[in-house]
Amino acid sequence: MKVAIAQLNYTVGDFEGNKSKIIDSICKARDKGADLVVFAEYAISGTPCFDLLHNAPFLEACEDTLHEIAKHCDNISVLVGLPIQNDNRIISAAALIQNKWVVKYIGKQRISSRFDNMGCISMSAGSEHIEIKDNVLEVAIGEDIKDYRKFGGECDMIISMRSQPFFRGIIEQRHNFHRNMAKELGKNVVMVNHIGGQGDFVYDGSSCAYTNDGKLVGLLNNFAEDFFIVDFDNALELEFPVQNRTYNTYRAIKLGLGDYFRKNGFKKACLGLSGGIDSAVVLAMAAEVLGAENVRVLMMPSRFSSDHSVNDSVEMAENLGVKYNIVPIADAYDAVNSSLKETLGDTKFDVTEENMQARLRMIMLMALSNKHGYIVLNTSNKSEAAVGYGTLYGDESGSIGIIGDLYKIEVYALARFINRERTIIPDNIICKAPSAELRPDQKDSDSLPPYEVLDAILYRFIEEGQEIEEIITAGFDDEIVHRVVELVKNSEYKRRQTPPPLRLSSRPFSSHFIMPLINKFKM
Amino acid sequence: MKVAIAQLNYTVGDFEGNKSKIIDSICKARDKGADLVVFAEYAISGTPCFDLLHNAPFLEACEDTLHEIAKHCDNISVLVGLPIQNDNRIISAAALIQNKWVVKYIGKQRISSRFDNMGCISMSAGSEHIEIKDNVLEVAIGEDIKDYRKFGGECDMIISMRSQPFFRGIIEQRHNFHRNMAKELGKNVVMVNHIGGQGDFVYDGSSCAYTNDGKLVGLLNNFAEDFFIVDFDNALELEFPVQNRTYNTYRAIKLGLGDYFRKNGFKKACLGLSGGIDSAVVLAMAAEVLGAENVRVLMMPSRFSSDHSVNDSVEMAENLGVKYNIVPIADAYDAVNSSLKETLGDTKFDVTEENMQARLRMIMLMALSNKHGYIVLNTSNKSEAAVGYGTLYGDESGSIGIIGDLYKIEVYALARFINRERTIIPDNIICKAPSAELRPDQKDSDSLPPYEVLDAILYRFIEEGQEIEEIITAGFDDEIVHRVVELVKNSEYKRRQTPPPLRLSSRPFSSHFIMPLINKFKM
Hints:
The structure is a homodimer of 523-residue chains. Helix content of chain A is 37%, strand content 19%. The first copy, chain A, has 16 helices and 19 strands. The first copy, chain A, has a 6-stranded mixed β-sheet with strand order 5-4-3-2-1-14. In chain A, strands 6-7-8-9-12-13 form a 6-stranded mixed β-sheet, covered by helices on one side. A 5-stranded parallel β-sheet of chain A has the order 17-16-15-18-19, with helices on both faces. Chains A and B meet through helix 2, helix 4, helix 7 and helix 8 of A and helix 2, helix 4, helix 7, helix 8 and helix 9 of B.
């Protein structure tokens, strides 16, 4: 039996575009002799849909599109994902099309966790087996595949239709999961996933197929559309390539950032270039993805900025051929301070004035955005967001976070990767000690543990869900661990208002790691 | 049988405080001869806990607290809610304590929608009947009560333990639901709910009891702690009072705002007073709840502000005895503009300069906040948030939104309620045409339909989930409806970054009404 896997980049609500991609792949699959072509979960609608799933015209458009697709399905069986309404529940389902008719819907059974369901309460009467050319197939939608040990009855093949976003390590995990499942059940396995950026979500694709003894016989592109036909009667074993996590992160950002602009119809981006590593990495990615001619940067020195901050930034902008302006903020800073003199009284320089600088920079960037249509890219990283080391409505602003789900040490790794062939980010930016430059001679290490320590603690606490005692037992300083965890707890209010970051980890803030706004628990 | 209902204001993670309230009520109930005392779902932990539910020490603290409470439970049965871990799932459960021992856990069965579960994946082996003094009781946790028609077997009484937040109309709905259930099943019913503010959540209490023929025999306070013993063998029928929605909204805001400050250990608040209705209402509420001496306001006129804006604001601040400063923003505005001259080029006044004013005001308020510890109150309303008529990082800033879940017409109703006995908000503020005053002679009605029309369309679209065609059929202008819905769709990116509003409706933004960040669907 020949199964075609169509791994496509859909757009939420773009029914014409999604339909035409789907029909093209159906024709291609039939022309190449496939018996069945499989598309991802939510292929027709795109995903995540959030509350569009509760919008009746949206659901009708899904169904109408399905029936238009069906007209093109002669001489081939088709499995395609879409949300359907059934008994007042919205279900993620697969439609089976044969001889131009929708002959069956297979609904998702498992209610996903709040992290997966994206607004879709999915519960159906139960999945069913389908038969294609004397092969019995069991179809699992989305997270249902996790329950494969409960799958009932005899079948020859398991079809897994997914919309599983990328995160650090998922590509290897997914491969191992499907290979082990194929071996354990002794069934052929086909998995079809989304690829593409969809707001803060990035889907990596990596669709795959395994024979009933666990041999990899199909592996589609990561981070790109792809099409592949598995001939299970005559399949070659493939090798699963070693994954480079930094390279995968790089490609995830390229895809996510590119699709955010393309699918929203945006062209131009701007950001503030501080001379630090974070904004340098964001600029490098933006110039690569959007083209240097579509990116503008502002250098906005205050009186606490070092000369090298502007010089390094200018060097980088000129290297890339990105248009830049130097907009000193000292005059605006003085004007604000002088207006506030009576209100604030006679006080010393403190975090107030630090934040004021960051917020004035936001005003400059947003003015450029409002006036000339540049989308402001947020340059915060996950380490800062975790401990609240950033200014709300200041550097924590922008339309979307490019590196907001990367710890500082991952940002450094990405910087070195960007410079792998030639120096795009000046060495000086990579080598200098991190500083917010909001007061004289400030260094991040004045307020925070070194990033190697901070990130290690945060990774254990946030990504791995370790407890404080576990982290201390692993060798970290008691007092530092408690301080870091307290900072994480107390900066939730900032994270509720920061730009959504491209999701690159399994625990992005604001969806997968949420603290209450009131929390008396001493963790 | 005598059942005591303890309706208490818990705090998330305050195990000592919650425990001591619970023990006090147990003693009181025993002293007054109750056979059973019932507390709310999540009484021991407080709610919502979000990812604290996945923190093992937090769950251990819940259990430890339960066992300390149990020591005080002689000569009375106790039902108290807490999260427990069972088979790798976190379950919202009730513990039954008898003779100082935890004799049984009853787990929540239903998996709530993403709106209810607050991070808790709740699925258990099934609820059970319990027996107290020859009475058989069926205990339902949280949303499980919605499935009451599926409740099995014989019992004399149904105990519903809830943590149901307030929203417009819920008090009447909840009363009708429980009365009808009691009648339909022919069982006595006891419902116990939380009261209190918990971040952006407000719990209204309104715990109640019904006899098996649907008579109301217990009704506890709204928006305040309360304690009541129902003697089912000897119960008086009570009348369910007519609810005034504006008064309930007023009390919900008082409770939510007060607890936000009290539970977080905050004392002082500040806000910008524009001369418009929104900030006036927020000021009135803040002065009422926190005390005029703990509130500071800034009037921040630009050259587009009318004289009456400052005069009306000063009048109101002086009426209340609230300290104010007038901080003109013209100098800072000129400084920013002059710094940006080269960057922006020679362009006309547009939304850029409008937003700049709003953002400079944010800087002034945040400076006051950072310097002197005043918490900035957000003054945006739901109508603005719905259509994106506000400035991100400008007026859409602050720690928590006080009226962010109220439509503009509800804000007017609240203003009139606030003035019910004496003029707190000057008449002129209530009567003037709404204006952002960000350009000469600007009126909200230049860009938006009149609020009576806008709010009616938004209410149908957002709160009632009506489709565009339905709204048009109801008599609204086709073009206006489409424009409003398009504005709602296109301002999602702003709503992702705005302060959490006190939840006062059944569909607050960012949790109950979410649009994708990329959305090609023409609604």
